[in-house]
Amino acid sequence: MLKLEKVSKxxxxxxxxxxxxxxxxxxxxxxxxxxxxxxxxxxxxxxxxNMISGLYPMDCGVITxxxxxxxxxxxxxxxxxxxxxxxxPMLGTASEMQILENLALxxxxxxxxxxxxxxxxxxxxxxxxxxxxLNLGLENRLTTKVGLLSGGQRQxxxxxxxxxxxxxxxxxxxxxxxxxxxxxxxxxxxTEKIVNEQNLTAMMVTHNxxxxxxxxxxxxxxxxxxxxxxxxxxxxxNLKVSDLLKKFEExxxxxxxxxxxxxx
Length: 264
Known about the structure:
Rossmann fold; 2 domains
């Protein structure tokens, strides 16, 4: 479903602030893979997702999605095939629009928009059932402006929007990091449920090593712009946090010192 070949990225090229963030990354994802990505600050995790989504141009390399070369496609074209959630719950939704209207916008992503009524009766019924499946009590608040929702509620709505058209790839960039532990657990549970039910191909950056082990069928560890560990299946689920720390030290030659991830 996704293939990266020798993808590299350097910021501030030719200046004193030059920083190579990705070093010839090679990666393949099969359809239905749910990959968690961990690593310290500056490892290249978010940059990897940004390269795939088209937020920044690559220095070199090829990105293929479902057999189509998207390397030179702008972000808005890739958005027709890729769903994305960010760390900030304020991103991904229009705060001054209703829950209903936000979902309707997501439903029409990449499609022609005419001058007919914005949301049909059948759509309202569809969105009611979708929002009800979140078990957050929002199905009776569909006309509420999204800006009035809590961070967790907003991320849950954004998750629905990102998967409404079943994207070829779902990118989750620490989408629960700004939430309290209880809300984070609920949004993660919803994420797993939607990804599994729709058999989505997904990549999730997380700072929580336990979540990285428990969620998905594959785990990738990054360090200094390289993938230093790639494990899947039963071997992944048998891992412990101590195993990950040991693997990091073996591959990088230094101790893992990211307090945020260790305490997570």
